Amino acid sequence: MKLTEADANTHSVVGTPYWMAPEVIEMSGVCTASDIWSVGCIVIELLTGAPPYYDLQPMPALFKIVQDENPTIPDSLSPDITDFLLQCFKKPFRMLS
């Protein structure tokens, strides 16, 4: 299967809600930060057994992902992991270039 440029549109919304970055939900385009956001979600899932916002239905979770500064990070995690996750969850417009 070969992808055409039309198939590689970076302004479409595709993904599993709990791992989607805010800029993907807002259809602002996909960037490296989108992947880093998802890595943070996977790390939380590996450490706690569930991704951020998993206690919510998909639609409310999408709203929270966009509205919250960052997902809740469990207090039980080490300061190093907490710092790593906070870096993962920086929204692109707040990142330094």
Topology:
Elements: H1 22-25, H2 32-48, H3 58-67, H4 79-88
Helix pairs in contact: 2-4
GO molecular function: ATP binding; protein serine/threonine kinase activity
Enzyme class: transferase
Pfam family, one: Pkinase
CATH class equals: Mainly Alpha
Please state the structural category.
mainly alpha
Biggest pleated sheet: none
Tally of discrete structural domains: 1
Strand residue content: under 5%
The count of β-strands is 0
The helix-strand sequence is HHHH
CATH homologous superfamily designation: Transferase(Phosphotransferase) domain 1
CATH topology: Transferase(Phosphotransferase), domain 1
What is the radius of gyration?
14 Å
Could you estimate the helical fraction of the residues in percent?
40-55%
> Could you tell me the mean pLDDT?
85
Catalytic activity: L-seryl-[protein] + ATP = O-phospho-L-seryl-[protein] + ADP + H(+); L-threonyl-[protein] + ATP = O-phospho-L-threonyl-[protein] + ADP + H(+)
Enzyme class: transferase
Keywords: ATP-binding, Kinase, Nucleotide-binding, Serine/threonine-protein kinase, Transferase
GO molecular function: ATP binding; protein serine/threonine kinase activity
